[in-house]
Structure formats: C-alpha cells, structure tokens
Amino acid sequence: MRRCVALTSSLISLAFLSLLLPVWPQQTADDACSVQILVPGLKGDAGEKGDKGAPGRPGRVGPTGEKGDVGDKGQKGSVGRHGKIGPIGAKGEKGDSGDMGPPGPNGEPGLPCECSQLRKAIGEMDNQVTQLTTELKFIKNAVAGVRESDSKIYLLVKEEKRYADAQLSCQGRGGTLGMPKDEAANGLMASYLAQAGLARVFIGINDLEREGSFVYADRSPMQTFHKWRSGEPNNAYDEEDCVEMVASGGWNDVACHITMYFLCEFDKDSV
C-alpha cells in the first residue's frame, strides 16, 4: 500500500512536468498501479424546497408550572337531603305570663237574669265534654280489647303518627311506647299485632342519641335480647333511627318521620 501511495505522489509530479515536456518518459515495471485522479466539480444550483416532514415524537414532560390564581366562586349547589331528626327534648319550664292587653269595648246590655250558677255549671260541663271527647277519640282509635302480662298492659292504637308524636301520645296517658325486653313480651306484642290484622307498628326502641346504640323508650340500654330481621338494622339513607315491629315479631329500623299505628305499654301498678 505504501508503495502505491508513493507512486501516486510521483505520478502527480509527472503530470505537472508533462505540461512542460513534449515526450512522456518510459514507464518502468514498478508502475503497475492504476490511479484515477478525482477533481471536485463546481458548486451546483440550490435544489427545490423539500416536502414538510412528519411530526416528531412528543417531547419530554415539562416541569410543573406555578400555582395559578384562585378561580371564580362556583354557583350555589342544590339543597341537600334533610338531616336526621334530633332526639326528643325535655319539656320546658312554663313561661312568664304576658302583659295584660287593653280592655275591650263594652258589650251590649244583657237581659236581667239571676243565672250565674247556671252559667258556671254549663262551663264545667263544656270542659268535661271536651275531655270526654278526647278520651273517646283515643278509645275509638284503639283496637278493641287490650293484652296483659303479669306486670304490663298493652294497647294497640289505630292512629297514624310519627314516632315522636306516638311516644307523646302514650306518655300523655301514663305509659310509653311498647318495649319488648324479652321473648315473652315480644311474643305477646307480635300476637296482638297479628290478631289485629296489622302489618307493622312503632315500638319503643331508637338510636336517636347515638347511631348504632339502640335504647328503649325509657332510655334503658338494650341487653342481649333482640329480634332484628335479616340484614337489619341497616340505617338506610342514614335516616333510620326508629324501630317498627312486623306481624311476625321481627324488628326493622325505619325513618322516624313516617307515620304508622303504634303500641302503648302501661305498668299495671300505675293504671
């Protein structure tokens, strides 16, 4: 290889000498390499602009930008579901008497009559009639007959009320909503319900004060005995804080704001 390079250099020198000498010198046996001399041509014209290339690959994910300004306040949302009904509050103290109102206009002169005693008697009779009417309405709305155990009397009331109103109705007559604290009481109440042909009634059990901690209407805690139906209590829609009994004797937690018949319980000693 080195020999060919040396020969190439020699031939280049001879090419320049040929411009001066009319006769080429005789080649020797060592000049056997074939040599082609390439001379760069002139610079050509600029070609046409090529087509637009295909989009390149996506670049790297840039750094996280600075925190933007706080956006505009959104529109007011729709009204949410009503909250849970709170526990029944204690009865408040009697308020102060109001101020005396202005005197009314004088009435028309009445007929002379010595009937003050009669008017008093009529007034007392009106009060008694009102009281008897209220009691009669309660009795008419109650299923005929009562059920008794050794120490309790149970009265099934056919008057649809919310849980709180049902409890107040029983308390107003010296009792409370029925509290099945053992198998015997639960069976007696269920039999009473089935014989009356009713599907369900409110009973005196709730967890109004603390979710999941059921107590009886007299605020005593539940012990080991219970008759929850399968899958109950489930507090559906976060609003089932009161309890109903069905005709089979099973229990189910229900919303307190619905209305249904109810079962009152009374101590025999206080009746």
List descriptors:
4-stranded antiparallel beta sheet, 16% strand, alpha+beta, 8 strands, elongated, single chain, 271 residues, 4 helices
Mind explaining what this structure looks like?
With 271 residues, the chain is an alpha+beta fold. The chain has helices at residues 2-18, 116-141, 163-171, 183-195, and strands at 147-148, 152-161, 176-177, 200-206, 215-216, 240-246, 251-255, 260-267. The protein has a 4-stranded antiparallel β-sheet, with helices on both faces. The protein has a 4-stranded antiparallel β-sheet with strand order 5-4-6-7. Strand 1 and strand 2 (152-161) form a beta hairpin. The longest helix has 26 residues, at 116-141. The radius of gyration is 53 Å and the shape is elongated. The mean pLDDT is 83.
Summarize the structure.
The protein has about 270 residues and is of the alpha+beta class.
Distance N terminus to C terminus?
134 Å
Radius of gyration: 53 Å
Number of helices: 4
Shape: elongated
Strand order of the largest sheet: 1-2-8-3
Mean pLDDT: 83
Along the chain, the helix and strand elements come as: HHEEHEHEEEEE
Low-confidence stretches: none
* Alpha-beta classification: alpha+beta
